[in-house]
Every structure is written in structure tokens, then in C-alpha cells.
Amino acid sequence: MRRDLTIKTGSMAGTSDFRVLAPIKKGFVPSLDATTYKTRAKYVLRGLNGGRASAYEYELARVLSDSVDRVGRIHSVGIAVLEPEDGTEDPVDYVLLTATFDGSWEAYVRVIWQKAARLLDLIFCNTEGYVLGYENTYEDWGIWLKSRQSEAYFLYTTPDLTVDDTRFLRMEERVYRRASGAGADKIVTEIKIPSPEEIARRSIFQVDGLIGVDPTDAGFSKPLTLEAAGRPPFRHGVRALAGLYHLADFYPPGTHDGVILHRAAHELLPEFVAMINDGNSYAEGIGRARLRIDEAMTWLMTPPDVAEPRRDLPFIPPDEQKLQDPGNVQAGIVKAYPDSDHGALLLLQFATPAALAAFLNVLKVTTEADALSAGQIVTNIAFTVEGLRHAGLTDDEVRSLPDEFVQGMQRRAGLLGDVRWNHPERWRLPASNWTLGADAPDLRADDPTPRIDLGAVHAMLQLRHLSTATPMAETRAALLAEMKRLVDVDPGVRPLSIQWMQRQRDAAGNVQDHFGFKDGTSNPVLNKRDAGLRYSNQVHLGEILCGYPNVADKTAPYGDASNRAHAMLRDGSFLALRKLRQDIEELEEVLLRSTRQATDAAAAGDPAPVLTRETLLAKMMGRWPTGHPKAGQPLTPTPPAGPGFNDFNYDYDTKAQSCPFHAHIRRANPRVRLTLADGGARPPRIVRRGMSYGPPVKRGDAQAAKDALQQERGLVFMAYNASLGEQFEVVQSWLAGGNSSGSSSGESDPFLGLAEAGRLRHFRFEHEGQTVRMSLDGSDRLHDEPRPFVRLEWGAYFFAPSKKALASLQQWAASLGRKPLVPWSVDDGEKEIARLREIERVEGEAAAMAGWKTAIEDPDSAANFINASVWAAIRERHGGVLRTPFGVLVADRDMVTQVLTDPYRHLTITGYLPRMQVSFGILYLGRDAGQEDQAYEQESAVCNDAIMALDQPAAFALARATTQKVLQTLVDLSIGFAQADGEASWELTVDVRELLEPLLAVFCEEWFGLTQDGGFFRRAGYRWDWTPGQPPNYPGHFLSPSRYIFQPHPNQQVEAIGAAHGSAARTAMIGFLNRFNATIKAPVTRAVLDSQRAQGDIPFVARTITGSMMGFIPTVEGNLRRILNEWLREGTLWSLRARYAGTAATDYTDALNRLGDDFIPAMQLRAVPELIWRTAVASFALGTGEHTVDVKPGDIVVAGAVSATQQNLVDGRKDYYHAFGGNRRVAGHPTHACPGAHPALAVMLGFFSGLVESTLPLRAGPAPLTLSLDGRLPENPGSPLTLALETRMLTANDFRAFELRSPSVAALHDPHEFQIQEAKKLQKVATAQLVTLGDSWLFKFPFGLRPSLVSSLEKLGYVAADSQRFGTYGRRLEEMAGANSLDEIRNCFQNPDPSVPAPQAMLIGGGGNDVVSGYTSPASTPLYKMLLQAPPAGTDPLIESEVHAFIDVKIANFYRTILDCVVHELKDLTNIPILIHDYDHSIPDGRKDPVAGPWLFPIFQARGITDLAVSRDVTRRLIDRVGAMVATVAASYPGRVFPVKTAGTLEADPRFPGNYKLLWANEFHPTEDGFDLLAKVVADKLKNDFNIG
């Protein structure tokens, strides 16, 4: 029992919708102006929207990245302030956010938390109870979002088009707009979609030696100078800052609201913040901006705070991660089992919690602490969400678990890309094959063996045999014996389906899959010693097991210790299980066709190289297949060494010239290095523990291979992870059609992708400079059924608990007994009662009446157990009875019985009579017994006796047979249509009405004699298009009058339809009886016709029979619908079908024994009718004590029949008779107790037995109260299409397979071409390769616009490639020693660029900018602090303590941090000499660079030192001090670090005394001649001391 599962995030084909509705705070914001929170929210939204509109509409080029764009997956977003209508009492205003985005809620909100939380904080801090995203964990923020999320009832988005796709298509169109032919094809094939951050970075700053290049221009953009690239975005930033700072009036600095605004500004303007913090490159712009908005600039230049959850992110895993309690963790999860070639999965169901408890009591799972030995059987268990419910988790506890687990894989098919042929409605479900044991085969799609609906599965038992040499028959026998031992512990343990598994191995003994690839080589590792250098592959334990931190969450998610469901998660792991069928025949056909066509093209003179089968497979996978000399190696410029071939990335294959963007392993794991800038991100990693199924393909034996191709085989994919939503589901969506590798989602994974309908699927890649198009599966004929290489047979989510959690589950299940866990809440019911009473107080009785009607009768209220909660609250908090505007509600079971029996005749049923009068007429159902005229007794006796005498076993048999016959008829009809249309398969969706209407019609005929003969009635259900004058329908016309008469307060529509239908039925019945009186044999009608009261009074008989049918049909129809809905929602139908597959109840009693334990509780929960009403005719009291209700004449008394049955359910009583007005077969029964309760029960059990026992392939349908069926049709051997498919000889028209294009002769413009040419020239003179780290002295200015030491070194043959040159103009040594910089240096040595030679030396320099640059004023610089104020002549201007603290301590420590990283941390990767250059003696003469400076003169001037001789001397001494400090630091690293004394070089040149400006361009930077002199000093050191160069 549970509430309907509400999925608030709407989704369609991988695109989702998200909306948050939050009430705005009342009152005023803490500012000088009297501004409300609502007004501030409006100001913020208008300001942000105005800024975005200006950026997109006014700016010539929008270069600064947009905060929404940076999220990377938002299609649209809108935020509104909703205000109530004027005059509303105590109005509440709301902020409404709506967003449409790619992927699932879990992954989307993680990115929002990472990249846009501060922006949303700025908006939603104006709402009640908001949890600031930046200051709180992702989990806590997500909880608040879910609490304010509203359901998307309808969603439409453009399917199969991601946000990144629009960027790709825009870039592709730009290419083809200006170029054509093979050259354009090559560019498009190499397009990698840039992120918004990368677009901004490359458009503004220097990246790869270029500045101002727009990467979205696909190679056509021309580079700019630093000034030309920087000025427009800087001006844009100034305008945006001015607009943002206006909000400071409402978010005052110095307050927490001010902190929120300051954070948001940094999040909104990251590139502008970087520009203004670079005091050198943009000094001119900064100065101009300060003239106008100095306060705002100072505010923005102030570093923002870092909230606790954001510190130390990404959270680096410890070097070694040990399990705290290995004996608590199931084995085979954290580490794979060794040497296991055979295994089995057993899907289980537990009839009762007691059976589950018994099973767990004997189950001994293998743990990480257990010693393993050859020949041992290892055991694992994992549960579905239904299994956890069965173990005793309450509905609220289950709903507190991750949404994706609770919803399940089937409901999330669209998000996973499980569409079309992989849609759950087309899954080939597990076979009911337990009885076949070791011989249980993998079935073909057309096999008629009964299948198991996954809703019936409670657990998955996994056994593996630790052996590689034991024969399969022997291992299967051992595994089966262990399964039987466990299953036999209790009769309630139901084995449903076995899935046998076996590993495939190549000739060398390596594990491989059926496609011929080494398997299991790329799982993540936990310990640093196992990590790679180019790609670490190390993950936190919290990515695999729940209850531990992960890379983005320092506090483990779902850590609420007070929630036992959360506590249960620790040391457990979620499991995604998918059975993937591999079509070897189809793959080999495609490979054969493609290689043959390539060979034919080569023979015809095409210069294209021949592509072998192995090459094509390698391009598709991204690794070489077995049988190739490079088997297992990835397609990378520098393949890694080692057996796993796993230490690689794609950093130097950015155009996918080696490994295609869409190759399987590149899509599944793009291997992007995580940097500090990615703090808060959680890249998805999973551990795969699957195993193949089916026989191996014997590729060496041609005939054996041919014979085996048609056999069923594939992979049982099993992935463990701590978060299905953030890990497995993200990876799966990437494979199905995401943009993970940076290309279009339209080209899916070559192996796992699905062809679009009517589209032949192609795989495009580059090979040896040529664009290759390889056809895969699919067809250009619109409705052809494709043959995917990999098809999803079925899948499910499980949770593998820890050993302690298993013990808890055992205890919970054992403690349940027979008492069910109810889904309603007395507290919630009491709140609802209070709400309705408040409506009555404020809006009056009429409004309250409508509110009570909604709470008691509305279907949504019932589905979510609101009405059940209200009834429970009345029972437990109000003495069982409550006066309301709806009537006197009677909830207590005994009081309901009191109302129904009415021993003192305080109540009357005659309130029904006026409604009967205008409907089917007056009859005994509206009369009281014991009246003087004895009308009730005279009219009811015969009819009631006849109904009670109905044959229950016969009714059961008829209902079962009818249900199965109707189902079979519908299936036969569908099969016939499919055969007529030449289809290969048939499918059918059945609405429950298609079953119920014929079923009820049969009993209208069997018991009451109705027929279509004579045209009085029509055999049909309820039809909206019926009009008076047409024959009424049976059973359709007998439904609405019942609702009209038996509801306490029917609305006008019910009244009109009920009266019309009842009147029509009565009139038709009169005519029908007059015509067929003598021939009717149906027992009820015959008995009434033959009664004394009926003689000569056909209208009486017509009223009586019509009324009896209106009592029977709606009750049976309503209970059948509600019970079936409950069974479908709970999975009960599938559990019963699995339990009784292939068997039928022998009779009615047997069926009651088989189904009663599930049928009766469902009926008690959802009883129909829910309400029975009477009218008071006398004053009397209901209830006792303080809850007594004084009933007065005329009051409507509403007996909660459903409340009474629900009370019986809670108490474990089997009584369901309150729904029938009482049990007429016992003494003292209520007057109007239904005589047909037992026949109705027989009909209902017959219906459900028909469904449970049906051999047809039933499964849950796409909508509520629907069932789906499908199947394959036998192939027609004479059909040309079938023959073609069988012989695999389709023509080139059917499969246009392969295309090679050579590059055009005329190359397109490439902005990198000048770099390439320059590099080629340098290579001719290069004698040594360097790594450089420094400031502007070691910065290579684009186009040679300015000289530098590194440029002069290149003249001497010392080259630092882009990937080996670190540092930039204006960079401080403090930044060089920072985490980001050190990470770049590590990557240089751990992940070297294979296209450049290894470095022979490293050159470092820096510290000058730390002294003078990037500060808000001269007085804030370290140099200023080192100087005395206007020192008298003869006084040393320097303050020694400040000089020592800054140079000898602070700067020295920065150098030590850098050197420790290279010398110690990277000692195993490099031992090259490290040189540190000092500066030369600068001259503080006030000269500046064209875009920056002066640096020194303003500081000396601020200190009152205006004599150039004095300032030169101070500068000389400080530079010499730096040189001495460098020498001291270098001495700490003997044999590795060496100082290079450059100070004094320029003044030693003969030109210096005459005009030093020939050698010094400005205060800080030499001229080209000056740098040439300094470069010679460095080169001499390298050559003379190290023989480099």
C-alpha cells in the first residue's frame, strides 16, 4: 500500500522540466529605503533580464559568458513574480521559476549547485524558508528545491535535440556556408563543441598562443591582439557591473544580503573579475573605470567569501582508502571477484515478509573480509524498491530514498535513452524458467514461455563460482544446488527466473565480450598507487558505496541518522542491471560489407587506404579488438603501457583524429581532468561487474561460427554506484545520445546506439586525414524494424545492502507479522480537517461543503490517501464521528454498523426516493423496512432471495473464462491486423474497460436476461455520445444512476446524466419485459417475474430489475477498477502471475485461497461504495464523551464504508462487508445489506484469476489501468523481404554503406597556420626543449608584439611549446604557487604532449608582480610597506623587517612550494635541471608599457621619494636581495635547482651608459636587444653547466 508516485519533474525523450514555486517573504528588506521583498525580487529580475538583453541585443559580440549558458544544458528558463488578485485576504506572493533542460533532475541540479547557486540565491533569498545554495550542501539545497517543486502535468520540447546540439549545428552550418567538399567535411568531423567558459576564455585571453579567437567559428576566426580582444568585453563588464551595483541599495554591503549580492556578482562576471584582477594587462581600463565607478570596482575586486561546503573542492581522495568495516560490505562491489568464469542471477519474490525474514536468516553473503579460494561459491543479494517495502520500509521511508531508485529504470526510460526498440514496452522480459534449472536457456523473442514482469521481483540473488577451469555443467550444478538450498527455507520464497552467465576468453586467456574486446579494463581505482598519470582514474569510496564523501560532497549524502532508510544505505551500493543482447550476425554483416566496399574502392584506383575489420572495430570502440597486435590499446597518440592500457586521455586528440568523438569508450568516459575550477562537479564513474551470457562465437571455425550466430548471447551489464542519478544514468544517457565527448548527440554510440525510424544509421570518423562514413544498422524505409547491434532485453535498479543492513531488514520483516503498514497519516488528516474548518470560518459553509466533498470524494484525494487520512483522524482524534458541512461523518467501524442497522429507527433511506422517481423509478432500495404498508418486505423478498441463490462457483468460472476469452479475442484481432499488414510483430494495449464492459455485459445477460434482441438495449459500456431516444447500453447505462442516487451530494451534471440514463433504462426495460416475458430464463429476472407482487405489474418488475442491476454493476465495476489499479501500482498482479505461472485454480474455493490474501486487503483499502448516506428523522447522539455529536432531524449522516474497511485492514480483520452495507447472510443484518455480496465476490475473483492465470504476455501498460501485450509473428518464408533478410544479401540501395573523402587541395584558412609555420622554422634551429613558468619575462606575446626572455631564447634554439609554457603577463609568483598553477605543472609531466619532444630543463622566474602589481592603490603594495615615508638624506629608505618578511620569507616560500611539487612530488617523472632567473636592475623612471604601468615610480612618489638616484639604488638592492634569496632557495635542492644571475647584465653592455632606454623599454621590461642579452646568459648556463643546447 502506498500513495501514487508523483514524478514532479516532467521529461520527454531526455529533456526535462523543472519548476519551483516559493512564497515571498513579507515585510521589508534591511535597506535605507522602505522596500518589500517582493519589490526587491522584481528589481533583481528586471535588472538581470535587462543585462542579458543588452548582452545579446546591443553588444556586437557577446563575449562574456552568460550564467545560464555556463550551466550548459538549459533550453529555456523563466522567472516570474506571481501576485494574487486585489482584495485577497492575507495575500501571498510567489516567485515562480521554470526551466527546461537536458537530462535528469539529479544531474541538472548538481550543475546548477556548482555553477549558478549564487545567482539563484540572489533571487530566492527573498522567499520564505529558502536554503542558500552556496552555503549549504547539494543535498540540503536539493531538499528545499523538491519541497517547493510543482508537478509538470504536460511538457513539450523539441525531442532529440540538446542544447549542445544547437551549438554544433550552428558551427556546422557556418562551415558549409563558406566551404564545401572534403575539406569542409574534415572540419565538421573535427568540430568539438566548446563550452561557454571556453568560448569566453579563448575570445578574451591567450590560449594555445592565440588571443581573441572565437572557437564557435570552427577555425575561421582570426586572432587579435590583447588590447583588441580585451577592450569590448571589458567595457561590457563595466556596464554590467554598474547595473549590478545599483542593487547594492537593496542588498547593502556589510549585511548578509550584501554578501549574497557580492557572491552573485562574481558568479555573473567571472571573466571581468579575472580581467580587473590582472592589474598589468588591463591597467588602463581599470584606471578609466575607477574614474567613474571606483566604489563598485573596489567592491568587485574584493575577493568573495568561500562557504564551508565549497572549500577544498574538488575534494581530493586520500592516497589510500580502506574500508572501515570490510566485513560489513558485500564482496564483488568495491573489488571484482577473481577468476570467476561462471555465475547465475536468480530473481526472487517473497510471498510474505516472514518468508523474506526466513530467507535472510539463512543467507550468508560474501563480504570483503572473507578469504576467497578456488572452487568457492560467492554470494550477493540486492533488492528492488518493492523488496525493501516488503521488508518493512514505510511509504515515507521509501520516498526518502533517491528518486531515481524509487521510480525505477522503466519509468526513467526517456531520460536513459531507452526509446524505440529499447522502450520498456518492448522489453523481452525474464523467462519463468526456474523449473528448467541448469538447462534454462536464453529465449528468443518469439518463444512462448511465460515471462516475469519486473514489478514482481523483490530481490536478485547473485552467485558466482570462483574457477576458470571447472566445466560449465559442473559449475552450474553446484550453483543450482546452492540456489535450491536457499529457496527451500520457506514456501513463501518464490524463485522466478534464472539467468546463467559465463565469461568469454580469448586465446591468451583474457576476458573478452562477444564482440571481441577485452573487458573490464577501465574501472576506477580507489588508491593512488593504482592511479594513472595522464588520467588518474582514482575516485572516492563514496562514488561506489553510500555513506562516504565523494569528489563534490564532503559530507556523505543521505546521512540522516534519524531515518532508518538512510542509515540502511551506508556501506551499500545501488546496482543498475541490464540484460543487453548482442547481435553478432548483424555486426559481422556490417563489417564485411564495409571492408568489402573499401577494398573494391581501392581496387578501382581510389587512393583511400583499405580499412580492415579490426580497424573499423577499433574506431567504433576506441580500442583495438582481440586478435590484433595492439589488442586492448586505446586509439591515442601515445598508447599507455601496462596490461590494462588505461592510463590515457584525449588531451592531445582534441580533433578526434585518432579516437573518434563517438567511439564507445570516449562517449562513456571523456577522461577530462578535474581542476579546481570544476569544484562542485561530480563526474560520473561506475564500477562494472557484469558477465556475458550465451555461448562464445568460435571465430576460428567458420562453420561453427555460422551455426552459432543465431544463438542468443550478450552481456548481463551490472554497474555499482552510490548515485544512480548522478552516475549510471548520466553515462547511459551519454551512450544513448548525449554530448559527453563534445560532438553532436545525433550520432549515437556505434554499438549501443539506436537507429531513428526511417534512417540508416551512420558512423562518421576521421582516418588518416580522410572523412569516413560507415553505415551501421537501420533502414531508410520508414517503418522497417532495425536490427540494433545491442538491444536492451530488460533492466532494473537494485540496492545491495551491507551485512548490517541485511540484518536490520531481516528483523524488520520478521516483526511485521500480518499487520500492514498503512500509507495514510492521522496527523495529515488532522491538518486537512483544520484547513477545511478554516475555510468554513473564513469563506462560509458553501465553500467548506465543496472543500469537504473534494477531500472525501475526489480521485486525487483518494490516490494520495488524503481521504483515508481524514477518516483515520476522525476515528482516532474525534471519537469516530464529526459534524461537517458535508454531513455527519461516521468513521468508526462500530458506528458505521450502528448507522447501517439503525436499531432505533433514527434514520431513513427514503431520501433516495426523489432521485429514484426521476431516474429508474421507486423501488424497495429506497424504502424503510417495518412500515405499515410492508412495501419494502413485499417488493424485496423475492429479488433478494434470487440474488442470494446465485451459483457462486459458476459465476467464478464464467467470469474467469469470459476475461480470458475477451483478452484472447483482442490479441487475435491484433495478430490478424499485423499479418494482413505484413508486420513482423504485433502489439496491443488494452484499456481495462475493454475487459470490464464485456464481462459485466455477460452477467447482465446471465443473471438478468438482457439481450440486444428487439433493439431495446445495446451491449456496450458508457458512451458520451448517447442521446435520448437511442437504446440504452448495458452495462453502461446502469453506472451513472447509481452515482446520482447513492452519492450524498451529487453535482448537477451527475444528476442530469443519472436521471436521463435511469429513465431510459426503465423505459427500455418495460418494453423488453413486455416483449420477452415468457422466454426469459435468467434467474433473478425470472424469479421477480414469477412473484406474486409482479403479476400484472411489468413496470414494477422493470424498476426492480433495473434497480438491482444498478446495485450490482457499479459496485463490481468500481471495485474491479480500484483493486486492479492498486494491484498494478503495487505490482501485485505481476507477483501473482509469477507465483502461479502455468497453473490454474481448480475452482472458486481454490481461487479464493490463492488470491484472497491480496484481493481482500486491496478491496478493504479501496472499497466501493466509499459512502453510504441516510437522513435523520429523530434526534439522537453518535459518539461518546467530548466527541459526542447530537444528530438532529434532517441531518445527512454519511457512513464511511471505506473507513470501516480500512479500519478492518489495520486490525487484520478479513471483514469487507461494510462496502456491501453489511453481511446479509448473518442474523441481525442491516435492512439494505447487499444480497449479491458473495456472487459479486465470485465475479471479481473470476476476473482476477483470468488475468493471473492467462498465458498471454501481459505487462503494465503505458497509462493507468492499461495492459500491454506484444509478440513476434512467424516469418513468411516466401516473402522476398524475408528471403533477403535470411540470406543477408540486401542491395546497395538498401544500405548505402561507406564513403571515403580525401581532403581538398585548396586548404581552408586556419588561424593556427602561422603558429604551425613558425614552429617548423623554430624546429630547424631548436637545440633544446624547455618548460617555462613565469610572468611577462617568460610570456610569449602573440605575433611577437612585445619582446620577452622566452622569445629571445627561441632565437638561440631553446623552445617552450604551448603545452610546456606556463605563466602570463602580470602573473604573480603567489598565483604560480597556487593550486591551479601547480595542477597545470603536474599535468605537463604526468600527461606530456606526445607531439613535442620531452623537456630538457625548466626555467622559472617571478616575484616582481607580487611587489607592485594588481593592488588597488600604491599604498596597498608590498613595496610601499617596505619604504619609509620621505626618508631624510642619508637614511636608508628600506625597512629591513618588511623586506625580510616579504622577500626572504613570503616570496621564498612561494618558490619552495613550486619546487617541492616538481622536485619531490614529480621525482619519478622528471629529473631535469630547474633554473631560476632573477631580474635585472630596473630603472623606476615612470615609463610605462602601452597598456600597463608605470609600476615603481607611483609607489616611490607616494612615499615622497622623488630622487631617481635614490629610487634606482633601492630597486637595485631589492633585486639583488631577490637574487640572493633565489640562491639560498636553490641550495635547498642540491643537484636539481640552480640560480641564474641575470642582474647587472644590461648595465654591463656598452650601450647602457649612453642611453639605457635602448635596453630598457619601460620600468619593468627590457627591449628586444635587452632580452637578447639576458637570454644569452641563460643559454650559456644551460650549455656550459648541463650541456643543453
TrEMBL record:
Which UniProt keywords are listed?
Answer: Iron, Metal-binding, Oxidoreductase, Peroxidase
Where, if anywhere, are coiled coils annotated? Answer: none
Q: Which Pfam families match?
A: Dyp_perox_C
Q: List each copy of the Dyp-type peroxidase C-terminal domain by range.
A: 513-737
Which protein, by its recorded name, is this?
Dyp-type peroxidase C-terminal domain-containing protein
Origin species, per record, is: Bradyrhizobium zhengyangense
Keyword check for Metal-binding, yes or no. Answer: yes
**Which cofactors does the annotated protein need, by name?**
heme b
